[in-house]
Amino acid sequence: MYKAAVRWVIRRNVRALRHGDPAPLLAGYAEDAVLVFPGQSSWSGEHRGKAAIEAFLRRFLEAGIVGETHDILVNGPPWRTTVCVLFSDRAVDASGTVVYENRAVLFGRMVWGKIVYHEDFEDPQGGAVRPVPGTTPAAVVVAVRDLAACDLDVRVTGAGVSRWWSAGSSPGPSSTR
Questions:
Q1: Fewer CB within 10 Å: C terminus or N terminus of the chain?
Q2: Residue 2: enclosing H or E segment and its boundaries?
Q3: 29-37 and 45-48 strand pairing
Q4: Cα–Cα distance between 79 and 117 in angstroms, integer?
Q5: What's the predicted TM-score (pTM) here?
Q6: Contact (Cβ atoms closer than 8 angstroms) between residue 40 and residue 150
Q7: For the segment 58-117, what is each residue's pLDDT rounded down to a tens digit?
């Protein structure tokens, strides 16, 4: 029963984030929680405490990235729960064209219903975003990707982008559950 409840809460909170509300997800973190984003990107680092995690989540939303859970594995008792989430995320421009797409496994530790540790493991190839040769963006889109360092910044604003494509090994899961 506990494991099903944890899965339900995670899905509900990610659904709220997908609709622009980080509050339910943020409420699930302990005050001294740590969110780790490995790599050498502008997103990377240890984000310690709720304020730092909130800034990370708000940046995710401001970048126009929308996430979705697929599979959620929960193990352990309430005082030491391990959670793994198969997650995909994407950003689209105003015309509906996908300008960023990736997948990840999110690993977490929970204690009495609060996330105390969260680490994201993204596909380092999945988020490559490059313009289609010969096209001109119709909006201000910043897509900086250092493939060697797995650096990614995406922001979609204005009227949209003429045509952009995601280059990567896989677009990630597209089904919903």
A1: N
A2: helix 2-18
A3: antiparallel
A4: 13
A5: 0.69
A6: yes
A7: 998 998 899 999 999 999 999 999 999 999 998 888 888 888 888 999 999 999 999 999
**Model confidence over 14-27: pLDDT tens digits?**
999 999 999 999 99
Extents of the domains making up the chain: 2-167
DSSP three-state, residue 122: strand
**Residue 151 burial (C-beta neighbours within 10 Å; 0-12, 13-18, 19+):** middle
With H, G, I as helix, E, B as strand and everything else as coil, classify residue 47.
Answer: strand
How many CB atoms within 10 Å of residue 159? 12
**Which fold would CATH assign to domain 2-167?**
Nuclear Transport Factor 2; Chain: A, (3.10.450)
Q: How many CB atoms lie within 10 A of CB 165?
A: 15
The helix (H) or strand (E) run that includes residue 57 is helix 49-62
Pair 97, 117: CB distance under 8 Å: no
